[in-house]
Every structure is written in structure tokens, then in C-alpha cells.
Write a structure and sequence with these properties.
Largest sheet: none
Radius of gyration: 19 Å
Helix content: over 70%
Number of domains: 2
Number of strands: 0
Strand content: under 5%
Number of helices: 7
Distance between the termini: 22 Å
Structural class: mainly alpha
Length: about 140
Amino acid sequence: MVALFEGAKGALVLLVGFGLLALIHRDLHAAAEQLVLHFHINPASHYPRIFIDLSDRLTDMKLWAVALGALFYAVIRFAEAYGLWKQRAWAEWFGLLSGGMYIPIELYEVLQGLTWPKVTVLVVNGVVVAYLLVVVTRSKGK
């Protein structure tokens, strides 16, 4: 299950990277406004305005850099998913460490403001890390 979850994260980030590449040589300001309006959000509100203003500062080179970062992240997630699927010890340790390093950040975010998306991310990641911890400690005893 964890392998499928990690593979899905990699696929999602890869799709986002391709989506960013589709924005190269486009009017990003207009695209950002259209996206905000599509979700029926007031573009004059604080956070949508930050998002729209950020689109003005993006260049094609920055989009390429973020897309390349997305590719790198996706490759790591796919490698982890493959290793977990094949029950490789290195992948179990890698998953435990890579998932565990986000828990302090997720806890901090929840403490800053309790919202259901923040709690969901923390709980799902906590379950994955706890499961991998059990797997690693059981295989260590064999």
C-alpha cells in the first residue's frame, strides 16, 4: 500500500511538472487569474492576490527549474515505490527517513492553525512512518 502511495505521489508531481512546462511562453498572469476564477475565489482576496502576483515574477527559466525539480522528486518517489514493492530493506529505511523528516514541519503547521488538510497530511504521514518503523524493526530482528 505504501509503495502505491509513494508511486502516486511521484506521478502527481510529475504531472504538475508537465503542467508547468505547458505554461512556458504563456501569459502566466492571465492563467493565474483564470485558475483563481475557475475555483470561484475572489481574486482581490489576500491569498489569491499573492498567487496572482507571484505569477508575474515567474520566468520561463524558473518554470524549467521547478519542472526539473519535480522530475527529480518524482524519480525519487518512483525509486522508493519500486524498492518498497520489491520489499528491499534500503527502501524501507529510505521511506522511514524521508517520511519522518516531514513530521516536525507538519506538527509545526498544525500548531500554527488547525485545519483538516494539515491534520490529514500529518495523520497519513504518521501512519506511513509508523508502519515503516514496524517493518524496519521486525526485519532487523530476523
